[in-house]
Specification:
The chain contains 3 helices and 2 strands. With 202 residues, it is of the alpha+beta class. It has a two-stranded antiparallel ribbon with strand order 1-2.
Length: 202
């Protein structure tokens, strides 16, 4: 703990600091709660996304055997590619996080009469799986950013609650004691001086 001056000026500074800490602490605690809630919501969204992807994969099971043919799998892989994952930014409790908007695909042109009849369905199925995964990656990025901000906010809350506020209260207590002692000793000195001044007159 840094050495403090035991003066009335320092007492005012410490009281002002305490007022500031106690004013900011509830805001930080609220932010911490909001971030914790958002992290739970991210985990819920990830679980929901995984559930939807799993259901989608289950629907594909009936004809997915076609991918066992490497030529068919190559045809799908070459016909479809991801151009970009679209996101926007949203502010959550002071943190900018990405929000999933969608995936832009590039589809190579192909002759409908020459390709296998299942190719369109296969491309749609692959698109769906890629979209689930892209969305999940964006939600994970949200979670990571919120988690980083939560760590910083928790450190600040702990700093205020466990160090700054108790330290400032202790400083105020020590300064009050020192000022009280100083005032008492000034009164005693003044009585002694007054008594000494009265003695010669007597």
């Amino acid at each position: 703990m840094a050495k403090i001056k035991l003066t009335k000026t320092e007492l005012k500074a410490q009281r002002d600091a305490l007022k500031q800490y106690t004013r900011f602490l509830p805001t930080l605690q609220l932010k911490k709660q909001q971030l914790q809630l958002e992290m739970r919501l991210c985990l819920d969204r990830i679980a929901e996304n995984e559930k939807r992807e799993s259901a989608s994969r289950e629907n594909l099971r009936s004809w997915i055997a076609l991918f066992g043919d490497s030529a068919a799998a190559d045809r799908v892989i070459h016909a479809l590619s991801v151009d970009r994952v679209r996101t926007s930014l949203m502010n959550i409790a002071g943190v900018d996080v990405p929000v999933y908007e969608g995936v832009d695909f590039r589809v190579e042109s192909y002759d409908l009469f020459r390709e296998e009849p299942w190719l369109d369905d296969a491309l749609d199925a692959v698109r769906g799986i890629v979209e689930f995964r892209a969305e999940r990656d964006v939600i994970r990025e949200q979670y990571d950013r919120i988690a980083r901000e939560l760590r910083v906010t928790t450190q600040r809350v702990n700093l205020f609650e466990k160090i700054k506020i108790p330290e400032t209260k202790e400083n105020i207590r020590l300064i009050n004691i020192a000022i009280g002692d100083s005032d008492t000793s000034a009164v005693v000195r003044s009585k002694i001086v007054k008594k000494k001044l009265e003695e010669p007159a007597a």
